[in-house]
Each structure stands twice: as C-alpha cells, then as structure tokens.
Amino acid sequence: MVGISTFTCSRNDIHDCLRCPRIVAFKVQGLKTREVTTPRRYESSLTSYEKGAVGETIAKVAFEKMGAEKVEMKKIDEREILNQLREKLKSLENRLQNVSPETLLLELLRQDLEGMSFITEKLNEVYGSLHILGKGAIKNPFLPALGEPDFVALPSKTRIPVIIEVKNTVRTAASDTFQASFYNSLAEVSGSITLKQHYKDEKMELAPSVLLEPETQTILIYPRLGEFEICSEKTRIDNEIIEKIWKAKQLGLMGKLPYAEKTDSCKRCNYKKFCDTTIYDEIETAKPLPLIFAKGAIETGYDYNAYFLKNYIQEKLQKPGILNKYELEIQKAQLELRIKRQSKTERIQQYSDKLAVEEIKNKEAEWIAEKLNITVAEVKEALQYPKVPDTHKILEDMSAELEPWEKILGAKQIKENTATIFSLTLSINTLPKHSETLTEKAWKKWS
Ligand code: SF4
Fold first, then answer.
1. Site to substitute for ligand 1 among 18, 22, 277, most atoms within 8 A of C-beta
2. pTM of this prediction?
3. How many CB atoms neighbour CB 199 within 10 A?
C-alpha cells in the first residue's frame, strides 16, 4: 500500500529536495535513519497540540477585540475562554493525573493573553485592525498540495488578506518561517485561498469566496513569547523544483535513486551510509496522479464548481443549528407522512403531505439561494449533482498519461488507490468558482 506522499507534494518535500533530491527518494522508500523513541506520556502537562489549541483560541479572541485601541486583558473573560477550551480539549480530563485541567489551562491562558496584548498592539501599528475572516484553505493543483493555515485575516489599512499561523511554542524555529514562506508561495504560484463561512462587516457571510493567485503575507504569532514575525518571503515553487521532486519520488517508488552530486553536506547527511552517488537512474517524469485525474474529470464534463457547491451546502448549510428550523419541519412532515402511510390513510391525504415536504424543501432551497446569492434552480441542481465523476471513463481517457505511472506503481495499485486519489483531487481542485481555470493552469505548467 502506498502512502499519501505518493500523490502530493508537501513543504517537507520541497525542503528535502532543496537539500538533496535523493532525500526525497529515500523518504518515499520509507528508509528510517533514526531509532524509534518511546512516545512521551503527558500525565501532568499539556501536549503541543493542546498548547497550540490554547494559542489559537486566544489569538482569535484577541484579534476579534482588536481595534484602534490596545487589547485590554481585563476586558477578556477568562472563564468564557476556559469553557471553550475545556469543550475543545475534552480528552484532557481523562489523561491528566494529579493536576487539574483548569490549573494548566489557566496558567497558559494568562501567559498567552499577556503576549497577545503586546502582539496586537504592535500589529495594529502595521496593519490597523486585523479582522479574522475565518479558516482558509490554500489549494494548489500544480504541486499538488493543500495548506490549512489557522486563519485568514483582513487588515483595515491594506485590505489585502493575510494568513495567520499561531505557534504556541517557547522558541521560534526556522521551520516556522519556512512554513510561512511555503503558504505565501502555495497561494500565489498557481494557487488560491478559499474561504468557506467567514465574517464580513462583522456578520457571518455564508457565501464562500475564493482568491485566485493572491499575493499574500503570513504572520507567525507566538502568544507565549509575545512575539510575531511578518513573513513576505516565498519558497521556491517553480517547474524545475517541482519536476525534480516528482522525479525523485517516482524513482524512489521504483527502488531507484536520482542523480545527485557529492557535496560537503553529504558528510552531515543521515542517509550517507545508504548513498552511492555513482549509481543513479533517469526516467521521464510523470505528472502527479491527482492532476491527471482532475484533468480527466474536466474532460468528461464534470463540474468541480458544482461539486464544491453541493458539498458546501450539505456540510455547512444543511447541518443542524443553521437550518434547523427547516430541518425540524421536514423531519416532522416526513414522520407524519410515514405514520399516515402505516395507517393507510387515504391517498389524497398522503399526497397533500408529500406536497408539504416539497414545500418546505423549496423554502429551504430559497433560503440557501438567498444566502449564497444564487438562484433556487442552481441550488437544486447542485444538490442533485453526482458526488463523483465517471472513474472508468477517466481511467480510459487518460490512459496515455497513466501509462508511466503503471510502470512505477503497476495498474493494480492505481486501481486500488483510485478512491484516495479522487478524494485528494476533490479537496485540492474544487473551488467555489474558477476550479477549471486553476486545474487547466496547473496542467499547462506541466505540459
Ligand atoms: S549523502 Fe549526499 S547525495 Fe546522498 S542523500 Fe545525502 S546529501 Fe544527498
């Protein structure tokens, strides 16, 4: 069974390839250079994930309060945040021994609030207020890759969205800056930032939006340190490096290695005992599989915008809490309908109840259409849109592009991984609009 790294290109791949493409090949082969250590038991302290969750929550609260004035810690209700955190980190209660979750969370929360108070004051001088728009997804079909930073925010001074990544660590790390520069490039070079439900003018906006190839900055926030870093740098994402990565991966999967020169860094390299630079291989690089599948789907007429819309409506707008007024009415009407069917009430009565369900569904569609600023017909069409493209046709139509991969993985492996590849395609290539443009651009870059 092949791993997810066979289908995508991550920031670690770029980082490794910039050091040496052979490292990418060794890693895809699953070669381990370090001994496996026993995981640490967190019985009386928070894990890095939990510390991260605290930092992210505090940062969000502080940005929400950020205006022209300094964020006053006194005005922030610690209890409210604590409750949010306890809800978010339920497993804490079971894991911790001899120390209460509240003590640990409160200690970190106070430290973070202090840090955020200073950070927001300084950021205010650069950006004005930073209005959190919501969570954003950075989608890039060229690599292909999906980035999920903590927030996307809109500064009042520049009005150009910025990415925010919170690191609740006790020291800054070079890898954080690399992550920030990767996000910047991932969005800008044949990429996009998609915002699902987000805030606009203080209100929750339900219509999703997308920014194509935006020039952006990433702000790294360190609440515990009371520090931040504005990163405008870019990671190198061009045809040469991306092709090099894919060549290394594909050779690695075949148990081979790409050409690499012996350099001074070889002496410090963890792979040196496995590495003989006089032995190497060459292949014609194949395009990434998710991109081949995405292009194939477009050729069959599959509409990724419609897929996004269908999924979005089902996941975000038809979930309990948002539409529950309509959901409850539909459920009630359906229940009544079933009871009446069981009791064999007259057909005419059932017919009229069916109409009631239809009527409520229509109301629901009207509500969704209004919120998304589209027509009722578009909502209904999206909800009936097929969940997956015609896989058989795509495999058939794209057989020439898939041929090199058949030599690398074998046709059986490709077939077995079709569902995984499609699910990646559907997360990376679908946008609220312009999905096709982005995929076609990526395809062109590879051609
Ligand atoms: S030993 Fe040298 S050539 Fe081999 S993987 Fe390491 S850096 Fe690359």
1. 22
2. 0.87
3. 16
